């Protein structure tokens, strides 16, 4: 074993960073044995040095991240600060200093991943980011390496623990959205400002990363269609149950049947109880991968939290340190296909449409004719009426988003339709 340690700079010491520092300290001997050389935590960059951080060596703390990254003897930089800047600048600086980088920064990677990979390749160093998607679940490396000889056609997953917790509580306890969010916040699953989670921004960034790796093409967060779950109601949950389904916020990445384009989207959807993702409870994550030769694979586990995410960070740390010792780098960016991202209007899926209508003869025929007019085939219809009011639940066969939108616009113009109460996609067949 080499005796000279590999020096590591840690940027960020919050929930994840403090766990990384703790494990690097307590498991130093094991990490050294696995790597083939000791690793030394050379410094920890924080915003405020005066805050108590139990178990974190105080003498390593600094507020000057720039100086830490550029001191010249750092072998690996671990970035768990998040956000676009100053993280991007610090990572590029690390590359220029010859340091490899391990990051958990999904937002930055979804926006500028191609640029960062190019900078890492030019510097002859590694950029690893297993922790950016699905916490502790080994997912990116299997996609990038284990399935490198296969053709991945679809990635379907629950990649945000906060939203899964909220929808699970709405389903199992009958809680409304606000009540479930309040419980998620109290338990620490939701941030004080939960916008990134509940509006789907977090999941969209992860979907962009997954699609880029799975389909070997450039996909950014801007290419991902996004809907949050704030409009999901107790009535939607009840309708899903009536169909033998459950509602999940899904990240869906697909290669077109002709192989000429890809789609990436995040939105609530009903999935059958028979689908493996339907049983994913609480704040857990799961990702379902469909490949031509391997078939269907499912990856499941805790998708967030200090210790689970730190586990993924340290797995990457071991890998890049081994590469350093071998004088090599691991797999970089693979974007040789250059497939365009198809707009959501052209995406084909099934829909669940709930209508409030007049309870009188001929309404169902009127509604059915509108669906037929726009080429949207109806699979099932459920109608309930009482005292002049009625609800009509229509489940379609597969149709484009554009065709469904045109149908809904025409339905809203009908005198017999009082309201289009909800529209939700149906996935996971």
Automatic annotation (TrEMBL):
InterPro entries: ACT-like_dom_sf, ACT_dom, Asp/hSer_DH_NAD-bd, HDH, HDH_cat, HDH_CS, NAD(P)-bd_dom_sf. Gene3D superfamilies: 3.30.70.260, Dihydrodipicolinate Reductase, domain 2, NAD(P)-binding Rossmann-like Domain. Pathway: Amino-acid biosynthesis; L-methionine biosynthesis via de novo pathway; L-homoserine from L-aspartate: step 3/3; Amino-acid biosynthesis; L-threonine biosynthesis; L-threonine from L-aspartate: step 3/5. Signal peptide: none annotated. Its EC number is 1.1.1.3. It catalyses: L-homoserine + NADP(+) = L-aspartate 4-semialdehyde + NADPH + H(+); L-homoserine + NAD(+) = L-aspartate 4-semialdehyde + NADH + H(+). Residues 352-425 form the ACT domain. PANTHER family: HOMOSERINE DEHYDROGENASE. Belongs to the homoserine dehydrogenase family. This is Homoserine dehydrogenase. It comes from Kitasatospora putterlickiae.
